[in-house]
Amino acid sequence: MIGELRLYDIVNTPGVGADLSHINTNAKVTAFIGDAQLGDALSGCDLVIIPAGVPRKPGMTRDDLFNINAKIVKTLIEGVAAHCPKAWIGIISNPVNSTVPIAAEVLKQKGVYDPLKLFGVTTLDVVRAQTFIAEILGVNPKEVTVPVIGGHAGTTILPLLSQSKPPLVLEEDKAKALMERIQNAGTEVVNAKAGAGSATLSMAYAASEFADACLRALNGDTGVILCTYVASNLTDLPFFASQVRLGKGGVEEFLPIGEMNKLEQENFEEMRSQLAGNIQKGADFVAGC
């Protein structure tokens, strides 16, 4: 589904581009490097995926990355606004809870904001939930569906285990432990890498799943449903991750959150103020620039 894959970074892009260009697909691979080439990299793009930024290290939260990654995302989104204002944008750069609002504010300033085409990529939360649930049920993870709502940091990640298919029946303490493992899975990887970085391979897989879903929708598939962090009216929060149905114009339908059990409802109420603060922090960053 890819006509041309363009890579952009401030260093090392030509080598990565050469490596990818040897893969046996029809996609043309082009590499761009440095500030002067950002416009050429973005010009006319249909889908822009932004994983840029610094990784977490042990003891760091996603929010600790804010000051560095916020500036990177702002610069790249300014480039999108100038060179491919109608593109779909998927933001992976942490803290996603704040970087998506940053992108929204920049696009508003430039007069090209389309809330239906701006996404925070929370696919890895769903991938992890599917994996861990499948381990418990003894089934193929591909057979598991489970909504993960809220945001993309710690307790703002809310897997709705009660809505899992196949059904997952757990005692409350075990359900709570599983929920916490999903919420803290990124830290599990950070600690296991012992200072050498954060999740990269699982994140790359999740990013490819997200990009594939977007490309299918752009190509006319009307049955694409995924969880993603977007401008939403499902709650009183301006941005919220939930299941949506995609179409050629971006988000076409917000699926209902559905009924939550007592544990999930408690976590939902607890995370709202934190997520609201994360969102406001992003908006304040742009306002102060």
Automatic annotation (TrEMBL):
<feature type="domain" description="Lactate/malate dehydrogenase N-terminal">
    <location>
        <begin position="4"/>
        <end position="120"/>
    </location>
</feature>
<dbReference type="InterPro" id="IPR022383">
    <property type="entry name" value="Lactate/malate_DH_C"/>
</dbReference>
<dbReference type="InterPro" id="IPR010097">
    <property type="entry name" value="Malate_DH_type1"/>
</dbReference>
<dbReference type="GO" id="GO:0005777">
    <property type="term" value="C:peroxisome"/>
</dbReference>
<feature type="binding site">
    <location>
        <position position="94"/>
    </location>
    <ligand>
        <name>substrate</name>
    </ligand>
</feature>
<feature type="domain" description="Lactate/malate dehydrogenase C-terminal">
    <location>
        <begin position="122"/>
        <end position="285"/>
    </location>
</feature>
<dbReference type="Pfam" id="PF02866">
    <property type="entry name" value="Ldh_1_C"/>
</dbReference>
<feature type="binding site">
    <location>
        <position position="56"/>
    </location>
    <ligand>
        <name>substrate</name>
    </ligand>
</feature>
<comment type="subunit">
    <text>Homodimer.</text>
</comment>
<dbReference type="GO" id="GO:0009507">
    <property type="term" value="C:chloroplast"/>
</dbReference>
<feature type="binding site">
    <location>
        <position position="9"/>
    </location>
    <ligand>
        <name>NAD(+)</name>
    </ligand>
</feature>
<dbReference type="Pfam" id="PF00056">
    <property type="entry name" value="Ldh_1_N"/>
</dbReference>
<keyword id="KW-0329">Glyoxylate bypass</keyword>
<feature type="binding site">
    <location>
        <position position="203"/>
    </location>
    <ligand>
        <name>NAD(+)</name>
    </ligand>
</feature>
<keyword id="KW-0816">Tricarboxylic acid cycle</keyword>
<protein>
    <recommendedName>
        <fullName>Malate dehydrogenase</fullName>
        <ecNumber>1.1.1.37</ecNumber>
    </recommendedName>
</protein>
<feature type="binding site">
    <location>
        <position position="69"/>
    </location>
    <ligand>
        <name>NAD(+)</name>
    </ligand>
</feature>
<dbReference type="InterPro" id="IPR036291">
    <property type="entry name" value="NAD(P)-bd_dom_sf"/>
</dbReference>
<dbReference type="GO" id="GO:0030060">
    <property type="term" value="F:L-malate dehydrogenase (NAD+) activity"/>
</dbReference>
<dbReference type="InterPro" id="IPR001252">
    <property type="entry name" value="Malate_DH_AS"/>
</dbReference>
<keyword id="KW-0560">Oxidoreductase</keyword>
<feature type="active site" description="Proton acceptor">
    <location>
        <position position="152"/>
    </location>
</feature>
<feature type="binding site">
    <location>
        <position position="128"/>
    </location>
    <ligand>
        <name>substrate</name>
    </ligand>
</feature>
<dbReference type="GO" id="GO:0006099">
    <property type="term" value="P:tricarboxylic acid cycle"/>
</dbReference>
<keyword id="KW-0520">NAD</keyword>
<dbReference type="GO" id="GO:0006097">
    <property type="term" value="P:glyoxylate cycle"/>
</dbReference>
<comment type="similarity">
    <text>Belongs to the LDH/MDH superfamily. MDH type 1 family.</text>
</comment>
<dbReference type="InterPro" id="IPR001236">
    <property type="entry name" value="Lactate/malate_DH_N"/>
</dbReference>
<feature type="binding site">
    <location>
        <position position="62"/>
    </location>
    <ligand>
        <name>substrate</name>
    </ligand>
</feature>
<keyword id="KW-0576">Peroxisome</keyword>
<dbReference type="GO" id="GO:0006108">
    <property type="term" value="P:malate metabolic process"/>
</dbReference>
<dbReference type="InterPro" id="IPR001557">
    <property type="entry name" value="L-lactate/malate_DH"/>
</dbReference>
<dbReference type="InterPro" id="IPR015955">
    <property type="entry name" value="Lactate_DH/Glyco_Ohase_4_C"/>
</dbReference>
<feature type="binding site">
    <location>
        <begin position="92"/>
        <end position="94"/>
    </location>
    <ligand>
        <name>NAD(+)</name>
    </ligand>
</feature>
